[in-house]
Automatic annotation (TrEMBL):
This is MerR family transcriptional regulator. It comes from Streptomyces cavernicola. InterPro entries: DNA-bd_dom_put_sf, MerR-type_HTH_dom, MerR_fam, Methyltransf_11, SAM-dependent_MTases_sf. Residues 6-75 form the HTH merR-type domain. The keyword DNA-binding applies. It comes from the Bacteria. Pfam families: MerR, Methyltransf_11. Keywords: DNA-binding.
């Protein structure tokens, strides 16, 4: 154990498959500093340094620049588990892109073998926007503004002119007709905000870098359950804004068991995630407001977890699942089992039989709530 906790530069280089020169460079620029000493007094890597190096090397392999990596690994809102989850998502994304390129290359080889030349457009497609649209970064591809939910949120903002969007992600639900400031701790998400989106500050909900009452309103959409301390974050929103609007989920009842077939019949592990989530009463108390139910339209365009309640085939799509953290959080084994079970039941007609009442519904109550204060 002792040895594991203090590794020499040479040993770390050997284990990680990088040069000592690289490690020295990381040390010089402050990216990964060996913080321990060997018995002989030489600088050595402690367990925490190795963990940080592992994150740095993984982001490096994904193509991030060193400056960008420094911002990612220094982000106080992201712990080791959050880094691992994010890395996993990014790697899956990269794997999907590579798989799509292999398929495109196979097609071209086949075509050439049959004497058919692909057009210049076809050859370039695999590197361009079209590929990005189909298998690109999961989040922007499936998480869009749902206009009916947006209308509820914007109405709740009232006549607010200045709006703070906390946990803003790629900017869904940011009203275009108001003066918006976004707050987003994740560099990966910030990097995916479209050109022309509202200015975005790198910060966390729990510690908003603004004076009291700086904004007319603060909003938070599908983000509260990602915060390490939701109640502290909501109090911060309350502090910096006169009005608070939060779109979130009622985790306080066991309603998820009965109301959504996906968690009831395929993914009961969802219940374990809820155990850590604060109750709706705690959340509303933190902002001093009320909670209103938000029904999910059957053709909801924002691909959050419940969005496809009447389109069950969508959950078989890896890309749909990757844009929703629940699937990553329950673990690969539960995900595989749930997807296989659903696939079988769809093929056998069992799903349709069990959920035949849903066909008549245009919107469903699945525990989503708008908190307004
Ligand atoms: C599911 S996304 C929602 C993004 C956006 N609001 C939307 O509706 O598309 C959750 C977001 O919460 C952010 N987040 C995680 N922890 C946070 C924290 N402590 N404070 C603020 N945002 C946080 C994540 O980085 C992520 O962008």
């Amino acid at each position: 154990m002792e040895e594991l906790e203090r590794l020499t530069v040479g040993r770390v280089a050997e284990l990680a498959g990088v040069t000592v020169r690289t490690l020295h460079h990381y040390d010089r620029i402050g990216l990964v500093r060996p913080s321990a000493r060997t018995a002989g007094g030489y600088r050595a890597y402690a367990a925490g340094d190795v963990e940080r190096l592992r994150e740095v090397l993984a982001y490096r392999r994904l193509g991030f620049g060193l400056r960008e990596i420094a911002a990612l690994v220094d982000d106080p809102a992201t712990d080791a588990v959050a880094h691992l989850r994010r890395l996993r998502g990014l790697l899956l994304d990269q794997r999907d892109r590579a798989a799509a390129m292999v398929t495109a290359i196979d097609r071209e080889l086949e075509a050439r073998a049959m004497g058919v030349r692909t057009t210049p457009e076809e050859q370039l497609k695999v590197f361009g926007a079209e590929l990005y649209d189909t298998i690109g970064s999961a989040y922007p591809a499936t998480r869009r503004t749902e206009p009916r939910i947006a209308a509820r949120i914007w109405e709740a903002l009232g006549d607010a002119r200045t709006v703070l969007n906390v946990g803003a992600g790629t900017g869904s639900y940011e009203p275009r007709d108001r003066d918006v400031t976004a707050v987003e701790p994740s560099a990966v998400m910030r990097a995916q905000r479209p050109a022309g989106a509202a200015p975005c500050v790198a910060a966390s909900a729990e510690n908003l870098p603004f004076e009291d009452r700086s904004f007319d309103a603060a909003m938070a959409v599908s983000t509260v359950h990602h915060w390490p301390d939701p109640v502290a974050g909501l109090r911060e929103m309350r502090r910096v804004a006169r009005r608070v609007v939060v779109f979130t989920y009622d985790a306080s009842t066991t309603g998820w068991l009965e109301r959504f077939w996906l968690t009831r019949d395929y993914l009961p592990e969802f219940g374990e995630l809820l155990a850590d989530w604060p109750s709706l009463a705690d959340l509303t108390r933190a902002i001093g407001g009320r909670a209103e139910p938000v029904l999910v339209p059957w053709d909801c365009t924002d691909g959050f977890f419940e969005a496809h309640w009447r389109r069950p085939e969508a959950y078989l799509d890896e890309q749909v699942r990757r844009a929703v953290s629940v699937w990553t959080r329950v673990g690969a084994e539960a995900e595989r089992r749930a997807v296989e079970g659903l696939r079988d039941d769809l093929a056998s007609g069992c799903w349709a039989e069990r959920n035949r009442d849903l066909v008549a519904l245009d919107a469903a109550e699945l525990g989503l709530r708008l908190l307004v204060a």
